[in-house]
């Protein structure tokens, strides 16, 4: 157990102009006054930071799916992959967007069940039914 | 590449009473007249078949989350795990529940992004921010 | 690193009748006088708690495979998925059921080797030999 | 879907002395007269072939765990990882070592359940109970 | 086994201006005259197509790591995740960039070994040595 | 969160001759005077310790790929699998072999992108293009 990031987080005060511009956009978009550690470690590569933030901002914006549904999907993937940081950060985001305890527990139930039946299918290898074929 | 299941699918005609009862409930619940291969291979163990079906039925029923959102979450997990059968079957289910092309593509975008940032976090190991701690 | 669960564990004293009934059954089945944290967090959704416990109890009961073999399989999956909580809890369970150090280390050796050859196969993609086809 | 290996399988007749020696040992150990495709693709790197075979032979030999239990563990890992080739080959091996249909289905039930509870734990993050700490 | 994509691939002739612009850039960057199926399915969401292509182009460009090393890393991840399409496409790309058979087999050897020791560590849980802590 | 290994690390002083011989070879090969915890937990099974060490030594030796490239691949797999111990230990090894911050961040960018496109392919299932088929 370490608890230390593999690169030193870049604080706002120590950041260059390129990184600060991304940090400013993160805080403006999220209406917060702080930057979480995920972005601070990405900041070691300003191009990676900028691309990742702009992609996340675009992907998580309202569209055919609403922002809370998108957070639920993010949590589902993070729990499946066992990403600790992502589980804490996206659960916090989902709660901030109104996720109730009941929704969170149902989400977990679906994630658990999907992981179970995925392995039953991967272990028993039923052929894909013709009825499921895309048109 | 095989394409054959690891146990012979159990057809309705060849099934015992216990299995038929589950098959009947699947068709009644889904308002369909056929059973997909996933359940036919589980039927080699009627207890496993019954428990898995009853769990899926309970988990996927409307609740704090609506059935389409639950299907989207199922697809997200299945794509993350690379389960081919599950991807085809749950995408078909989601389309039957009204998933549009635009929703499907946005779902994929979120799943892709979550898998990317999960690994950036797992590789760089930023500490969980105190602000993300559950109360 | 957080160390706090994403929902508050539900203690026996604070639990409702439905949850207490499950807790009582867990302690009776396991002949212990305490409930581990996994069940306490599931208890936020009494239906999820009850279904998961009853499924685990049914799956892990003696059958065509003995209980220790089942625990070894549980550890194999948990180590493959990198689930920390599960690794600690099921290793403790397996030891309580008599797993020796030698058995544990051999289990790890098989798990390691399977994870290695799984990726050699997934990277080199040999076709499934006709001799391995199920009859 | 391709179905072709990413390197051409090396047939016995075309193999050099180093590879043939491994192939001979595989057939002698397994009391068979053919080599499966997994080894034939590894044979492009005779050092990798030899090390992998010798490791597998050592790991899968009878020890504190019996050979059938080891095959069950191999299948559990392969189904969890979704390795198609490995699922077919190790299920065939387990059947050759006497695995019954009932044992196979119970194995799948445990694998499914472990994958489910792994994600419930990874998503809800209960702290490891002190009682589970190794002595 | 299906073999059909879950959305119909978008051919150049049927594509709108936004998609054609990306297709043109892919072909110009790669000096080829065809588009592979991965991009054709992404094209159902022109924004996703454009973002993903521009990210891949940026990430895979020469930098502190050379393009062949980047392809090797891509294959390592794809084999670890068991992504069939990605394994075929990135192995083809790596060969086009000069990957030899010997390099490919060594890559597989490292991927296999890493997957093995990852699970030995995840199953046995050695604490991170202070010497490995980042400064 | 535990932080304790599931078997007690075996210190040099307490080790038998077989284990000491491996420890000596590790230190001689790496030109260090200490043994990291990974090997100390494997030492509970001297055969597993010896085989794993000899395999790692062989696989990571200079060959068609140079040692730093091999460490990058090891990190890519470890981040994909979410193995905390492995991420810290192999990042430290890569830095000792000269990995720069810029190389590390580009590695992370490729790992992230590969994990993203792996899931886009696994979710949308484009068929493998004939042009990617191995000759």
UniProtKB/TrEMBL annotation, chains A, B, C, D, E, F:
<dbReference type="InterPro" id="IPR003779">
    <property type="entry name" value="CMD-like"/>
</dbReference>
<feature type="domain" description="Carboxymuconolactone decarboxylase-like">
    <location>
        <begin position="50"/>
        <end position="125"/>
    </location>
</feature>
<dbReference type="InterPro" id="IPR004675">
    <property type="entry name" value="AhpD_core"/>
</dbReference>
<dbReference type="Pfam" id="PF02627">
    <property type="entry name" value="CMD"/>
</dbReference>
<dbReference type="InterPro" id="IPR029032">
    <property type="entry name" value="AhpD-like"/>
</dbReference>
<dbReference type="GO" id="GO:0051920">
    <property type="term" value="F:peroxiredoxin activity"/>
</dbReference>
<protein>
    <submittedName>
        <fullName>Carboxymuconolactone decarboxylase family protein</fullName>
    </submittedName>
</protein>
């Amino acid at each position: 157990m370490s608890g230390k990031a593999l690169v030193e987080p870049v604080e706002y005060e120590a950041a260059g102009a390129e990184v600060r511009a991304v940090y400013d956009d993160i805080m403006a978009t999220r209406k917060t006054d702080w930057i979480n550690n995920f972005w601070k470690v990405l900041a070691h590569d300003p191009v990676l930071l900028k691309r990742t933030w702009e992609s996340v901002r675009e992907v998580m914006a309202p569209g055919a799916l609403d922002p809370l549904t998108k957070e639920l999907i993010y949590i589902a993937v993070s729990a499946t992959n066992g990403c600790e940081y992502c589980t804490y950060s996206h659960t916090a985001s989902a709660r901030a967007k109104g996720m109730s305890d009941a929704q969170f527990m149902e989400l977990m139930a679906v994630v658990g069940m999907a992981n179970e039946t995925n392995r039953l299918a991967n272990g028993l290898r039923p052929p894909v039914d013709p009825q499921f074929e895309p048109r």
